[in-house]
Amino acid sequence: xxxxxxxxxxxxxxxxxxxxxxxxxxxxxxxxxxxxxxxxxxxxxxxxxxxxxxxxxxxxxxxxxxxxxxxxxxxxxxxxxxxxxxxxxxxxxxxxxxxxxxxxxxxxxxxxxxxxxxxxxxxxxxx
Length: 127
Fold this sequence. Notes:
By secondary structure, the chain is mainly alpha-helical. It has helices at 22-53, 55-65, 68-95, 102-126. It has one domain (21-126): Fumarate reductase/succinate dehydrogenase, transmembrane subunit (3 helical TM bundles of succinate and fumarate reductases).
């Protein structure tokens, strides 16, 4: 027979006590950065198409890409590119069966976060 108290019980009690791990959050962020880099890719494609179309179209696209908003999008896309690259290297390490223990996985997660910020700043200063 059906349980009559079904509506009185919490559906997901684990959600109130769950603490996200760094490895799960960095994995989610890898997916987010992969999708976010599409925005910069579309801007670059628009810039190239405008350059091939006409001087007026290029002036419009170049004005947007080199504006403060375009610079901000490109900077965060650069951050996403470095983050995604370092996370991909981490997954290659894991795919070979190395660094799977929790303390090393945590260190790799912090290394990815710090490394992506450091490499972004270095790249932005060079460019």
